[in-house]
Design brief:
Blueprint (H helix, E strand, L loop, with lengths): L5 H9 L9 E5 L2 E6 L1 H9 L4 E4 L2 E4 L4 H13 L10 E5 L5 E6 L9 E10 L5 E6 L10 E2 L2 E4 L6 H13 L7 E15 L2 E13 L13 E7 L1 H9 L5 H16 L1
Parallel strand pairs: 1-4, 7-12
Antiparallel strand pairs: 1-2, 3-4, 5-6, 7-8, 7-10, 8-9, 8-13, 11-12
Length: about 260
């Protein structure tokens, strides 16, 4: 984008990177839902996991959640899954159609699409409420983030995820907030340590009344801060925020500029 600072252009570049290792499509029934490294797919098939190679893609042999659970269990046994959470996430295709559910730890190794929600928190005077991620988080420990951000669990809607995450991460109820509004969407495609990240985020913004202060409930937040736009922009440029949060906050500030 013309005229934008170099740090923001670099963030946009990092948010749209191909895999480091070539991957082939992963199909569940007739739908393409993710991707997998061919060598890992071959190992899974050789070990009896319900997966077969078919016309340049990897096909899950049975169209049910038990087959997906077998894929996840194998990844865990081989040390290829991320931190196991006993948490099911929806398996969707590129059009957003639901096809099943699988353990969260298998999402990145299988290149499955995750759906996230983020809430940009504002003070009535225009400052930004932000959170620092806990130092024991599996991803981006200690970096700064939006006030609220999390993944949609199986069986949830965007609204339910936003309500749950707002309470768990910030101890706030949506009904207590002012000027709640959609802020658009963000898509991230990039390599990560455990595989390939494909994430679609739905963004919101709200104002915290002066009487409210965020308070973490789930142990995944180290602390909160309320900062002005100049401080936020300097911190974004210095790399103190997660990639997703940096792009979301940059988007929010750009929206402020055109209002």
């Amino acid at each position: 984008m013309n005229g934008e600072p170099g740090w923001l252009a670099e963030l946009r570049r990092r948010a749209a990177l191909p895999p480091l290792v070539p991957r082939e499509p992963l199909r569940f029934g007739p739908a393409e839902v993710g991707s997998i490294e061919p060598a890992i797919g071959a190992r899974m098939a050789a070990d009896g996991v319900p997966l077969r190679h078919e016309r340049g893609a990897w096909q899950v042999s049975s169209r049910d959640d038990e087959a997906l659970a077998e894929l996840a269990a194998w990844l865990r046994e081989q040390g290829l899954a991320s931190r196991w959470r006993d948490e099911l996430l929806p398996v969707i295709d590129a059009e957003g159609k639901l096809h099943g559910a699988i353990e969260r730890a298998a999402m990145r190794p299988l290149g499955l699409i995750t759906q996230a929600v983020h809430l940009v928190g504002r003070h009535p005077d225009g400052r930004f409420w932000v959170q620092q991620r806990a130092h024991d988080k599996a991803t981006d420990p200690g970096l700064w983030d939006t006030l609220v951000g999390g993944l949609m669990a199986a069986g949830e809607t965007v609204q339910l995820t936003l309500e749950r995450e707002t309470w768990e991460e910030a101890g706030l109820r949506l009904a207590e907030l002012d000027a709640l509004q959609p802020l658009g969407h963000l898509q991230i495609r990039r390599p990560v340590a455990e595989g390939y990240m494909v994430e679609r985020a739905t963004l919101f913004q709200a104002v915290l009344p002066r009487r409210l202060t965020p308070e973490n409930r789930d142990g995944e937040v180290a602390g909160f801060a309320c900062i002005d736009a100049a401080t936020l922009e300097a911190d974004l440029a210095a790399g103190r925020y997660t990639l997703e949060a940096a792009l979301i906050h940059a988007h929010a500030m750009a929206m402020d500029a055109v209002r």
